[in-house]
Design goal:
The chain is α+β, with helices and mostly antiparallel strands. It has 9 helices and 9 strands. The two termini are 29 Å apart.
Length: 246
């Protein structure tokens, strides 16, 4: 199967639609839909989006995931695991209809229309901002959430920092590379950390000298270092992952 074929089949199944019903909505044959779902027919992304939209799927979810983001990152099994929730919702809607609660039915329908399994991705994926030297958001990456955390930190506290120069290239971080930063308040010996300085935020490798002083290292043409009192060091976070362009 293709990713988009998976998405189409999963969404069709979740909504209780037959391939023939979807085909009628999109003006293609039933076999066309089945071939797409099985990966026998490869279609352009815009055609896949048109099919998904015909079933009521929005271009973006409330979690700000676009269909392109989802197609590139979604784990089908994770999405399948949320389908029982969708079936429960449909049962709930039927029960509410029998009780004549129109307002509640409408509210439940809005949630279903937003695609429950896609909204559920907000619990397993996080839109992590990419920040430049002045901490302005310039892009984003989708990262998986494991046990409610990303790299052991609260998902809304992590971010990528874009290296503004080549001062750390001796440590394999070049200008424009992205380092994932998790919160930290104190220096970690041997770690690369994001430090707040009077000149702005910089990346430095930290070496503890004793309980009162640390060595901050950077490496462009040569390795340079400076000794800083711990009580004057302003740590923003610890760098735990590097993403570099080839």
């Amino acid at each position: 199967m293709s990713r988009l074929g998976d998405l189409i089949k999963l969404e069709r199944t979740r909504r209780g639609l037959s391939a023939k019903q979807v085909a009628r909505k999109t003006g293609v044959s039933e076999q066309y839909i089945l071939d797409v779902e099985l990966g026998k027919r490869i279609i352009p992304d815009d055609q896949a989006r048109r099919i998904l939209k015909s079933m009521g799927l929005q271009q973006t979810t409330e979690a700000e995931f676009s269909l392109d983001d989802i197609a590139a990152t979604v784990d089908l099994q994770t999405a399948v695991d949320t389908m029982p929730r969708a079936r429960v919702t449909e049962k709930k809607k039927a029960a509410l209809r029998s009780e004549g609660d129109a307002e509640a039915v409408a509210s439940t329908g809005d949630k279903a229309g937003g695609s429950i399994w896609l909204d559920a991705l907000s619990s397993v994926l996080k839109r992590v901002p990419v920040r430049n030297a002045v901490m302005a958001e310039v892009a984003h990456r989708l990262l998986p959430i494991e046990n409610g955390k990303i790299e052991g930190a609260a998902p809304d506290k992590v971010f990528y920092f874009m290296a503004p120069d080549n001062q750390m290239r001796g440590f394999r971080v070049n200008r424009g590379d992205l380092v994932l930063v998790v919160p930290a308040q104190s220096p970690v010996d041997g770690a690369m950390m994001l430090i707040e300085t009077p000149l702005g935020r910089v990346l430095r490798v930290v070496k503890k000298l004793d309980n009162f002083k640390v060595l901050l290292q950077h490496y462009d043409d040569k390795c340079e270092s400076e000794i800083t009192p711990v009580n004057e060091l302003h740590v923003v976070g610890r760098c735990v992952r590097l993403e570099a362009e080839l």
